[in-house]
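ok here's the first one, seq then struct tokens
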Amino acid sequence: MYVKQRMHIGTLAVAASIFFFNGAEAAAPLAKTQAPGFYRMMIGDFEVTALSDGTTDLPVSTLLTNTDAAKVKKTLARSYLKEPLETSFNGYLINTGEKLVLVDTGAAALFGPTLGKLIANLKAAGYQPEQVDEIYITHMHADHVGGLMAGGQVAFPNAIVRADKHDADYWLSQANMDAAPKDAKGFFQSAMTSLNPYVSAGKFKAFDGNTELVPGIKAIASHGHTPGHTTYMVESKGEKLALWGDLVHVASVQFAEPAVTIKFDTDSKAAAAQRKAAYADAAKGGYWVAAAHIAFPGIGHVRADGKGYAWIPANYMRMR
């Protein structure tokens, strides 16, 4: 009996010590961060790395046009989304084996503290800005060119920057900026601040419309969102990836209704026509698509769905 009582008391003592020890132990703090924002896949022999520049909240029901706010909110709700919509800003790095090509550079500090992460994610992915050979700009809005500069210096010192001449002629024109409405002058200022150092250094080369830039990467004119908006088609060993830039901003709304446009369009009628043509071609061709503002990594396929289309995100894949 005495032995049993001692064992019982001892058990209680151990239990009490565990209780008090655990009670005194601080809980692990919340991390409140995501993993580094990069995602890789192969297109034939080419390695493609999606790079997140971050996200920002957008009041999309007031930004989207050729629709109405109530309809946008209802469509968002069907995808379990709401306003303000947390929107991704993506860039894409293509290693062809001979060239390292970056398509779009993110916003850097031009859009606030939740963006400007592209270079950090490029480094996390195992590359350095100095290794980038060429940079292809889909269009010269701030969230696509801001990352060309870092701390007042060119961020990619060894890169040649390329964009369609229609965008360069429009956004880099002092006369156009002077003639623009006050609330539009910032678009010109950010383009000039980001591009002019490369222009001055002889590191900017414009092209005109459909052009093969390096073997396996072609520029395809998709003018409308801006005067020189460009899609880049990446192709290797019969596999294709279309880098759409801003042919889509709100996937949950615009795939179902491709006629929906956005206030940032320079020519909304042309932008809608380009969007419809791109969706139809991607659905017919079955090739990969990536876009700057589809939820990161922004890569997937397009499928015809009734009078509209459906977005099929990439299945997570290991590198092979």
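and now the second one, same deal
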Amino acid sequence: MDVNKTDITIYFKKDENMEIRKSDYSLEEYSMGKVKNAICEAYTTAGEECQESVIDSIVNNLFIYEGMTTLELRRQVENGLMSINKKVAKAYIEKNAENESNRKEIKKTDDFISNYFKASNAATGSKYDSNANVSNKNVVTMGQELYKSNNIRQNRYMITDRLAKKYSKKLAKQYLLDLEHHVLYKHDETAIPGMPYCVAITMYPFLEHGLTKLGGQSVAPTDLKSFCGEFINLVYSVSSQFAGAVATPEFLMYMDYFIRKDYGENYLDILSEKVEMNKKGRTLEQVIENYFQQVVHSMNMPAGNRG
């Protein structure tokens, strides 16, 4: 049977005008320069001299066709390098494996961000810590979620490494198995590696020096208003260095001190008196309640150091 010539015609283009298909299925114009640079980088990584004549020989023997995948392109380069220098071929393979791993990690992160935005709340959006003390999801809480998988891996490595050195590799391996099968539960594995958990602080240095001893600019508070404002910054500053809660047992005692300083020792007897001469004309009780609300509401706002 005769076959029409047009049925078996293959249309060739110049290499530089062809499109290749990337791992995400998008098309990109084939670049001989990129391939040469990747090969030369492999030679440099392997500690070998990058000879242009050798690179040209490899590139010119590649069979490039329309729609070929980057995986196929790399396979041909790997084969070419293997026939010339196995050390360089290994460096090329390892570099591509690293890039591929990075691409997969980025894709996984991108998928998580999309799913987090679609989630009904912070708990359902969380992949690792759904019982965290967060009620509303936003870009801050999402940012905290992004790196929890890395933190878990690092925390587990630190503990298993210590177990292996102090006891045995067998015990370290068993520890991981018990975690994975929920025999053990490691509290707050998602926290930054090495970060301590809860803390209770004395506020006396804060009354003496403000936030200056913590690297801040605020000096010691002088009245009720500055005390409440600086106290909020104090808690945020300390909580950024701890994974758990920050306790300030002296808060109410020191708040009482500044109320007495501003309104007198017998302020409890004048709670119903108007102490503001502005348009609001609030009573002392309302003023105290307002400052207390300021502190409580600020403590419950999502922040970059909590999530």
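notes on #2: Residues 1-14 have pLDDT under 50 and may be disordered. The first helix runs from residue 32 to 45.
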